[in-house]
């Protein structure tokens, strides 16, 4: 079951700019963009914790398991 990254949705809800979050996390905007698109194989817990701290959210708010449709 694929994991869907909803970071862009949470950032929009919080009116957070990519450059500000990337600077806070100490990563490039390009790497943040890849994370937002779900094009990474993994994410460090330290990075995930930083994202949640900055956005005042829980990991489950930005990482969602996509269940396959039955049929």
Structural category is mainly alpha
Q: What is the CATH C level class, in words?
A: Mainly Alpha
Low-confidence stretches: none
Q: In the CATH classification, which architecture applies?
A: Orthogonal Bundle
Per DSSP, the total helix count is 5
Percentage of β-strand residues:
5-15%
Q: CATH topology, what is it called?
A: 434 Repressor (Amino-terminal Domain)
**What is the overall shape?**
globular
Oligomer: single chain
Give the SSE order as H and E letters.
EHHHHHE
How many independent structural domains?
Answer: 1
Mean of the pLDDT scores? 94
Can you say what the CATH homologous superfamily is? lambda repressor-like DNA-binding domains
What is the CA-atom radius of gyration, in angstroms? 12 Å
The percentage helix is 40-55%
Spatial strand sequence of the major β-sheet: 1-2
Q: Report how far the terminal alpha carbons are from each other.
A: 16 Å
Largest sheet: 2 strands, antiparallel
Count of DSSP E strands? Answer: 2
Describe this structure in words.
The protein is mainly alpha-helical and 71 residues long. The protein has a single domain, classed as 434 Repressor (Amino-terminal Domain). The protein has five helices and two strands, in the order E-H-H-H-H-H-E. Strands 1-2 form a two-stranded antiparallel sheet. The two termini are 16 Å apart. The relative contact order is 0.26.
